[in-house]
Amino acid sequence: MNDTLSPAVTAAHHAAEPAWVTRCEWAALGGFSLGLALSKALANVSLALLAAPFLWHLIHHRARLWADPMVRIGAAWVVYVTVLGVIEFYLLDLKKLPSFIEVYGYAFIPLFAAALQGRAERVRISLLLALAGLSIKILLDGHWFEPGPIFDYANWQKALGVNRNNTAPLIDAGLLGLILWLNEQRSALFRRPGVATVALLPVLGLLLYVWVTLSSRASWISTVAAVLLALACLYVRRAEGPAGQLRTLVGTLAVVAVLVGYGFGPAMFARLTDESDTWQALLSGDWQHVPLSSLGTRFRLAHIGLDYFFQRPLTGWGPNVKELIAINTLYPESSDNVQLHNGMVELLVRTGLIGVAFYAAAALVVYRAARELPTILPHGTALFAGLMGTFAIIVLNNFSISLIYFQHGWQLILFAGGLAYGHRYRFDAPQKV
């Protein structure tokens, strides 16, 4: 289905939505998408700007929006987290209230979704700007005028300006999305290649090289899982796509896998299989003698988190975990960490089983909206597959780092969720029942 409306409906829509709302939506969408990887400040300012048009829609479409399940879940989540934070402030005698924004996280999906409104042009430009911001930020990371490798993420602590573990999912999702997009454009690429399509091929090479050199096991594993899930989605919805689309993609991925294996296979295998002494201690149950390695530290922190969770399984302890880690008695040597390096465990510690129920409800609502994309947007099947793959990337990376509580993590959730849910806010179309 295309994005064209009848003149009467289009005129009614533009009459209902003032020009300043439309301009504000475009500016905020562009700024947030571009800033997602390029500039944390730009992304934050743009997200705040999205509140203005959303408030206008909330006033003028209040019956529809207040009946929307994502708005209701998000509003209830904000109230729940705020109450927990205030209680934690008094119980732990904190010097200041904990930060709430990163815990609110997915509650902001309606702001981005209402600005997108599932419109093909807005979705396409948002995706291209996000890819542009990611590519520019990677290029800015390069040591272009210094001796040694231009990109040496394996020995750098940072990527895209912050801890590389926090930004790896952006690179994973960007790589997956670009592969799916190029596969959608394969006819134009091989028969009538346009400048824009051909220009994306070097970007694909850049992202693939950076993905390998990140030397992140979580990134590699989650991306492979995401690709497999995306392929499964395309297979299930294959009747809705062009003939031969899936075969072409599988063949291309096989060639890429062979090339990556030939060029980087030994180094990747060595990285995937290191820390054998840590695995030996874990599998033997000798937990007190687990080495203080990358994996060992994550095990200790997960153990600390689960111990706190079982003390308050229903509601958790509140938005702040730094103080809890600092006063833990299980592994005092890990008390200087500011996160549990496991978003799943940290969700349980911060907000308990109630928080998990909130996340599960929001994920189900967004998934149901995403399933409708193949019948609503051009290239909707590829977008659906990419969003499901991104979901896998987010979930699996959270077992290595508390991704949902870092800006690049929760804003990636917001971005993907908005793409999936935006068409539910087509205010010029009948309400979805």
Which class best fits the helix and strand makeup? mainly alpha
Number of domains: 1
Strand order of the largest sheet: 1-2
What's the number of helices? 19
Instruction: Give the CA-CA distance, first to last residue.
Output: 19 Å
What average pLDDT do the residues reach?
A: 85
What does the largest sheet look like?
2 strands, antiparallel
Q: Quote the beta fraction.
A: under 5%
Helix and strand succession?
A: HHHHHHHHEEHHHHHHHHHHH
Shape: globular
Q: How would you name the oligomeric state of the polypeptide chains in this document? A: single chain
Number of strands: 2
> Which regions are unreliable across 5 or more consecutive residues at pLDDT < 50?
1-15, 187-191
- Rg: 22 Å
Structure report:
- Helices cover 69% and strands 1% of the residues.
- Residues 1-15 and 187-191 have low confidence and may be disordered.
- It has 433 residues and is an all-alpha fold.
- It has helices at 7-16, 19-38, 40-60, 62-66, 69-91, 101-104, 109-116, 120-141, 164-184, 186-190, 195-213, 217-236, 245-272, 276-284, 294-311, 322-326, 343-370, 380-397, 407-421; strands at residues 158-159, 162-163.
- The protein is globular and about 65 Å long.
- It has a two-stranded antiparallel ribbon.
- It has one domain (14-275, 341-425).
- It is built from 19 helices and two strands.
Strand and helix layout:
Layout: H1 7-16, H2 19-38, H3 40-60, H4 62-66, H5 69-91, H6 101-104, H7 109-116, H8 120-141, E1 158-159, E2 162-163, H9 164-184, H10 186-190, H11 195-213, H12 217-236, H13 245-272, H14 276-284, H15 294-311, H16 322-326, H17 343-370, H18 380-397, H19 407-421
